[in-house]
Amino acid sequence: MPVPIFDNHAHANERTGLGAAEVARKFKAAGGTGIVLVSLTTWSVGGRPGDRDSVVRLYEHTARGAEAARAQGLAAGAVIGVHPAECARLLEAGWDGGDVEEFMLWAVDLAARYVEEGRAVGLGEFGRPHWPAGPRVVELCNRVALYALERARDVDAAVHLHLERGGRATVDSVAELARRAGVRPERVVIHHAEGALAGYARERGLSPSVPVGRRGELDAALKAGPVFVVESDYLDDRSRPGAVIPPWSLAGKLKQYLARGAITEDYLREICAANVRRIYGWRLQL
């Protein structure tokens, strides 16, 4: 039985990149066994910020991408949502804060409907800016993130949260949001988690998703034991080559670590199978 190699957070874009089928094919050829494809921004697939039809187009794009990955023989699921950059763009464009919030909560509800219909395994990426942003943006994004966690509770689904890298304070704030929402904390994925905080995030009940292409992050996470999942955060954008590693490089790196004894097969099964099941439960069949 081959060891599992699972990419917990990647993007595919039929418009700017290889597209989901080719991404999945290359990942599988490198030893990949499963992948979660996450929504990009509305404008990355040719839509417009704040346009509801563009959100539907984005969600359909992501759901079809997961279907294409499954057709290539991977265990795959879609995580769909509207990126916090949408909030910032709409406020910068002069939208009223209440109108932005109404739009974002509608997008959360639509994502939850896709989960209920079995076309997605989770919501995301919602969350907060990782770039400098004023309190108005951050507070609005926090309210949206809380609502996404509440709706994830309602439909028993995972949530991928886009966040600043603020050390333990970021982890603690997410744990508090999860507590307020009443969601199972293991369903809450800290996307692009700091490797050195993987153990602390797990102690708080959350699921850290560590970017293996970011120098030193995987090595730092390994010290905590197999308490995390891994991600490429691949963008699938020809205009940004090398911005992040592709899923097939994630597979290659994990296989290198295995070959030199830095991790064992049992360790790999924990981070690429057991922890994946912990996050997605019955919604994602490995």
What is the CATH topology assignment? TIM Barrel
Number of strands: 8
The rounded Rg comes to 17 Å
The CATH homologous superfamily is named Metal-dependent hydrolases
Gap between N and C termini: 13 Å
- Write down the CATH class: Alpha Beta
| Helix and strand sequence | EHEHEHHEHEHEHEHEHH
Helical content band:
40-55%
Which stretches of 5+ consecutive residues score pLDDT under 50? none
Supply the helix-strand structural class: alpha/beta
Work out the helix count: 10
Written overview of the protein:
- With 286 residues, this protein is an alpha/beta fold.
- The chain has a single domain, classed as TIM Barrel, CATH 3.20.20.
- It is 47% helix and 13% strand.
- The chain has helices at 20-29, 52-71, 84-92, 97-116, 135-155, 168-181, 198-203, 217-222, 247-259, 265-280; strands at residues 6-10, 34-38, 75-80, 122-127, 158-162, 188-190, 207-211, 229-231.
- An eight-stranded parallel β-sheet has the order 1-2-3-4-5-6-7-8.
- The longest helix is centred in the middle third of the chain and has 21 residues, at 135-155.
- It starts with 5 loop residues before the first strand and ends in a 6-residue tail after the last helix.
- The relative contact order is 0.16.
